[in-house]
Amino acid sequence: GMQGRLPEASAELRDEAVAEIRYTGKTVSYRSGVVIASLDGRLTHWLAKPGTKVYESDVVATIVPVPGSDSTRVALVDSALPSVAAKADTGMPDMQLNGEKVVASASGTLRTAGVRIGDWVVRGTRIGSVVDERYSILRFMLRVGDFRRLQIFMGVEISTGKYPGERFIGVVKSLDDNRKGATGEVEVEIMNLPDFVFEPGTEVSAIFRFRGEKAI
């Protein structure tokens, strides 16, 4: 078997879709990996907690715009978060607080980017993402000798200490021999991830299955 710790960003979940923000009747959507853009304002409420499953078009958070330097409105947002969020979530007209709804653009697991309730967010702030956890793409390196024995669609068995006793079945999706170094990059798609998420940096063990040969 092959063991090692996946370096940051070498094991990445596919189809990560950032949320979209809808306001004043206009929908602004962004492709995968692009920061969420919003009007300047305060994040008032997470309707869905990070790590929970959400569905497309679910409202996952609200932002109350605070234009200019209106300190009165800032104070109101800071001191009355529950009531402010409730008004914004229900869509009830409110002349003082015109709340924006952060809407999930895909179904999956909600993740945040370290933004907390009450934080001031400006245009370009990424407040979260929705990850499709049904499958995962893992990328890691093999010695060139072992690498050359691999084939596309070859079976792979993945295990990790994060989920003891679980065995994840995958297939080799792509191979890149780098043509210069002594290692090659292998991309493996894991097929059975209905309730599990691999984070970058997760330590994994991979066993590649060869017909009539010893696995590596």
Please sum up the structure shown:
This protein is mainly beta and 216 residues long. The chain is built from three helices and 17 strands.
What does this structure look like?
The protein is mostly beta strands and 216 residues long. The strands form 3 sheets. Strands 1-17-14-15-16-13-2 form a 7-stranded antiparallel sheet. A 6-stranded antiparallel sheet has the order 5-4-9-8-6-11. It has helices at 71-79, 81-90, 144-147; strands spanning 2-5, 11-12, 16-18, 20-23, 26-28, 41-46, 53-54, 59-65, 100-103, 108-112, 120-121, 128-131, 136-143, 155-160, 168-176, 183-190, 203-208. It has 2 domains: 16-131, OB fold (Dihydrolipoamide Acetyltransferase, E2P) (Beta Barrel), CATH 2.40.50; 134-208, Efflux pump adaptor protein, beta barrel domain (Elongation Factor Tu (Ef-tu), domain 3, Beta Barrel), CATH 2.40.30.170.
**Derived structural class:** mainly beta
Cα-atom Rg, whole angstroms?
A: 22 Å
Order of helices and strands: EEEEEEEEHHEEEEEHEEEE
CATH topology name of the largest domain, in short, is OB fold (Dihydrolipoamide Acetyltransferase, E2P)
Report the portion of residues in β strands.
35-45%
Number of helices: 3
Largest sheet descriptor? 7 strands, antiparallel
CATH homologous superfamily placement of the largest domain? RNA polymerase II/Efflux pump adaptor protein, barrel-sandwich hybrid domain
Which CATH class of the largest domain is shown?
A: Mainly Beta
Query: Largest beta sheet: what is the strand line-up?
Result: 1-17-14-15-16-13-2
- Work out the oligomeric state of the chains in this entry: single chain
Query: What is the domain total for the residues?
Result: 2
What is the helical fraction, as a range of percent?
10-25%
User: In one word, what is the shape?
Assistant: elongated
